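Predict the assembly for these two chains.
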Amino acid sequence: MTPQPQSRPLFERAIVRHAVLASFQKLDPRVQIRNPVMFVVLVGAVLTTALWLQALFGRGEAPARFIFAVSVWLWFTVLFTNFAEAMAEGRGKAQAETLRRARRDVQARRLKGPRYGAPYSIVASGELRAGDVVLVEAGDIIPSDGEVLEGIASVNESAITGESAPVIRESGGDRSAVTGGTTVLSDWLVVRITANPGETFLDRMIGMVEGAKRQKTPNEIALNILLAALTIIFLLATATLLPFSLFAVEANGSGAPVTVTVLVALLICLIPTTIGGLLSAIGIAGMDRMIQANVIAMSGRAVEAAGDVDVLLLDKTGTITLGNRQAVAFIPADGVSEQHLADAAQLASLADETPEGRSIVVLAKEKYGIRERSVHELGAEFVPFTAQTRMSGVNLNGNLIRKGASDSIQRYVEGQGGSFPPEVHSIVENIARNGGTPLVVADRATVLGVVQLKDIVKGGMKERFGELRRMGIKTVMITGDNPLTAAAIAAEAGVDDFLAEATPEAKLQLIREYQTGGRLVAMTGDGTNDAPALAQADVAVAMNSGTQAAREAGNMVDLDSNPTKLIEVVAIGKQLLITRGALTTFSIANDVAKYFAIIPAAFAATYPQLNALNLMGLTSPASAIVSAVIFNALIIPALIPLALRGVRYRAVGAARLLRRNLLIYGLGGLVAPFAGIKLIDLALTTLGLV
Amino acid sequence: MTTIGWLQIALYLVVLLALVRPLGWYMARVYEGQNVGLNTLLAPLERLLYRLCGTRVEEGQSWKQYAVAVILFNALGMLVVYGLQRLQSALPLNPASLGAVTPDSAFNTAASFASNTNWQGYSGEVTMSYLAQMLGLNVQNFLSAASGMAVLVALIRGLRARTEASIGNFWVDLTRSTLYILLPLALILALALVSQGVVQSFDPYVEVPLLQGTTDGDGNPVTTQTLPMGPAASQIAIKQLGTNGGGFFNTNSAHPFENPTPLANFLELLAILLIPAALCFTFGTMVGDRRQGWALLAAMTLLFVPFVLLAAIQEQAGTPQLAALGVDLTASDQQAGGNMEGKEARFGIASSALWAAATTAASNGSVNSMHGSYTPLGGLAPLFLMQLGEVVFGGVGSGLYGLLIFAIIAVFIAGLMVGRTPEYLGKKIETFEMKMASLVILIPCVVVLFFTALAVATPWGKGALYEPAISYTSIYNPGAHGFSEVLYAFSSQGNNNGSAFAGLGANNPFYNTTGGLAMLIARYWLMVPVLAIAGSLAARRTVPAGPGTLPTHTPLFVVLLIGVVIIVGALTFIPALALGPIVEQLLMLGL
């Protein structure tokens, strides 16, 4: 079982069943009042129901059948909205359930003193407070979030990350954070608890995923204000129609004033129910998409901000380049064959288990067909790397082969009575200038040549950075390398800028500079020394493998610990905003067609001439009004998939994106209801319902 | 329409747009405090004013201080106008010995001129003394216009500021608007109008014998006519330039003494839209990106032209009823043709329709023909232009700040569709701005609809339409047209336009009071949120534009902005319009 939060089908049966139930529970006015648009619909539904009851007793303002039809569809409008929200919440809840399974109450060994071997007492994990120190051993579930004080252990974090490969946790350094709910596989750890019950990482994750603590984001609040203002305008526009219509009847000397039922129907059709009904579902679904990308956002605000990012700071190592340098070429000294150099370099690296060493063996095999040999079988003696000699190598049949940085080898060769050839010097310099790392290989007093090690830029990075550039995002590579090397790698990877010889202070300074210029900065980090920069960045994605400090400083945690995830995070943020904008535009554009359906129908009794505006040729005033109300209700469930999945985002310039979305949702929103209302009217007429 | 008619409209647009750049550039320099060539003459006067008033030029105001200054200053102006009207019989320069204006009318007029509306419930020549006209109304013509321009400049400063607390100094903006912009332009225009024959004198009214005698209602012979005189040219110049619109005489610019020749007509027409159009260029210059200004001007122009054409084509087409009466509706060299009821024969269809659209696009409200006599759809053009919120050119200053608020709304709705939280000119649009912008959009709609409903639902409101007891001797236009009249009256006052759809007896306590309230709310409840936005944006940092930023100078954005203006206006007022001009048109066509 992988209890990893994973993508689910849009309509999972269990979630749908639960959502249907929740749709009715959410009819509670105390829930509805939070959404002013939908509250108006609820009041309208109650009002028309009362009018229908009145009509049943023979004193109705219109035929009971008609009022009933309007009323029922108003109730459906509210229910569909509740359903959309419950669907979004349900998907989150299902994700949370898998997480909650990890949060079992376990027994913990609370140590009396912060050291291994101190006496302990057994307590329930729920009783642990921040500051307590516990001992966990192989097979134990870590009771709560904490920091390793002592020991080293392998830990299975799949409950959180879904990644089954164990990770190493040890005291000090960047791997000292442990998460409650994860399991120790080997050895032991002394852990200082850093979270009180209910405040652990897992608790926060569950809270975020469930949407229980979901607060409206700034942009959502602003949009709600606009929607409320539109609702007030329409409330007034329809409410004043009653006196206007009474006056028209009086002035005209004939006809009947517009009924309250029709006014309510008109009002509900005009107010932005589509976006009002789906707004909260869109927000929850945005969060949900983050989770499916295995990123936990600590606030909805962070997801929104992700869409606005215009500068992306990326660590070079592990993000842009593969974690380690690799050998790419053998450059022999004068009078030495490449084959000879490769052979010597391979021999020197056979017992070298560092990635650099392995890459030399691989290169020798791939390029010169020198197959791997066993140091023991050859009877060779391995000379390991030491801080004093700063080189490693092998002694074999009187050959003393060494490899290392050029200055160490120079010292070695000169110590053996040889000399360091000048052309090797220039090779070394040349490699360094091009962003590579030179390793010189020597045999006793003879310098054989240079192995060129290079940072390998991960595949597809250039394309991804190009994509970011089209999104309008500037990429900045951060590296501890010297500027020369950094520039070469930056050029190869296709980033826009770089910060070389970066210190934590320099990073923080850079972020502040960009922010002063009005830019929104995103960055990823994992180390404790990244924490200040993470706290300063607007969107800060901490690696789940990182330290507790980094995870607390960030406003998102990437469970996959994949630094390029930022690109997806940005896309999800943008998608959230686009979906909101698209449905708002669609909702408002819809109103035009609804006017053409309802206005002629509403005043048919006073001014039959207004039927000239009945462009859709709807059968009767009653069918026109009912069709508009039905369309208004049905469009909500029809758009639930879009709200949950989000509008597709493409990395193209803002102008093109706007043109495209305006065409689809603006023009589409203008045209679609004409067709929709007409079809519903045809169906009602064919079925003889009106 | 006749070729000459089309050419008049085209010529008008060409001359107007050609003047945008020089005047806009000039105004930008004025507001930046740079030398504009008039400084040797006016700078000492400006400094003297500051010294007299104790104004410290370099001292910036927060938006709240700025708003308090605007409102106090306007309240004082309102009080002066009210006092002058009530006391005019005891004051000099009253050759016709006119009595005190009634309290409700004086309130309405004071609110009207302070708020740059210039709705006139009264007839100038039989109500106001020369003193009240000059010192009260005409002074407000300058100051209300300058107030609007000042608020616009404050908003522009807010948009371009980088984390600043101040949005400028109201007293300085007010003084510079008046001294360097309105006074010189008004002086030039007044002289040009005098050269065309517009009256400018303190002489008493003149009694002249009629060329052709007639009889009055009771059958008594009438042989003489009283010609009203007065210092008209100076007032007309500013009422056109400052989008005020309040005529010296009751029939406004249809009166031969206000608007005697085709050239006078063209100049007055030009003056209506001149400053509002040029301010777009001023805006672009001041925010450092002229394309932004051109985009807004393009939106205004593209909104304006279709309504000109609607009015012109509808009026030229005339009505089936006129045709049935045997009226020759064809245009020829001898006659304008079409529906000439309520229009001056010397202006014809094109100039009348163009004026009707211009005066309601801008919140001017002066007329050279009677809009109430237009065909239903011809009359819908000016009515709907006002209901759009007076942002199609709009009032001086107020039109552009209104359109900027619409731009903020447009950016907010569509800006989301490019996947960023919305921003305009590098300023993020957040909750506070949306609250304030919503108020700006909401308030005029509420005012117009609420007061219209109140009027048609109560005997006081309907009285002016129906009841002979309230000074009317016949039922004025019942049915849909009667409704249009009430809707027009409140659309005009609720958007600070001031033009009237004749036929409504609005000089009574009910209409004077509700109208006065509508004008005050529509002016100041909009100015305050606009200044609040200016203050809030000024304090915010500016986000530099990148490829991911929604461009707000492109044709696409212009279309979007037009769409938002039209949709908000249409969605709010279509039901009401359906019961007014739209059904009237359908009835007229016998559908």
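The radius of gyration of chain B is 23 Å. Residues 467-475 of chain B have pLDDT under 50 and may be disordered.
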